Amino acid sequence: MLLIGAPMLGVTMLTLRHVTDWDITLINRFLYYGAFFFLGAALTHLVIRWARAPWPVILLLAAPAAALSHLGVSEVQLRFGTLYSAATAVLGLAVLLWAAPRLYRYRLLPSRC
């Protein structure tokens, strides 16, 4: 159900974005963030396996995520509500989910006093 809901919301969001004059309306933002919510809920059982992925795999995902993020600063079509921005966000979230457990383990964050 969730694996069907996220793509359906994504397709609806992209259709609204490119067919209508609604650029950053409430419904477009709702559908954009809703797709990430359902995708995250559908993939929760894979988080532990993903956290154990080898670092070369993460490096292959981090490079395009960083490049697309950098291009998104100056290119309007790479920003909110487009297929490019959704792909960039998914790649970035995948890299962050892999890196999050390591931040604590390797003491990369400052300790509390």
Q: What can you tell me about this protein's structure?
A:
The protein has 5 helices and no strands. The longest helix has 23 residues, at 83-105. It folds into 2 domains: 1-42; 46-113, no CATH class. With 113 residues, it is mainly alpha-helical.
Shape: globular
Decide which structural class fits the backbone.
mainly alpha
Count of individual domains: 2
Proportion in helices: over 70%
Q: Helical segment tally?
A: 5
Element order, helices and strands?
Answer: HHHHH
Extended strand count? 0
The average pLDDT is: 76
User: Could you give a short account of the major beta sheet?
Assistant: none
Q: Tell me the fraction of residues in β-strands, as a range.
A: under 5%
Distance between the termini: 45 Å
| Rg, nearest Å | 16 Å
Spans of at least 5 consecutive residues whose pLDDT stays below 50 are none
Protein topology:
Blueprint: H1 2-19, H2 26-42, H3 47-51, H4 55-74, H5 83-105
Helix pairs in contact: 1-2, 4-5
Q: Features of this protein?
A:
113 residues, mainly alpha, 2 domains, 0% strand, globular
Entry summary:
This protein is mostly helical and 113 residues long.
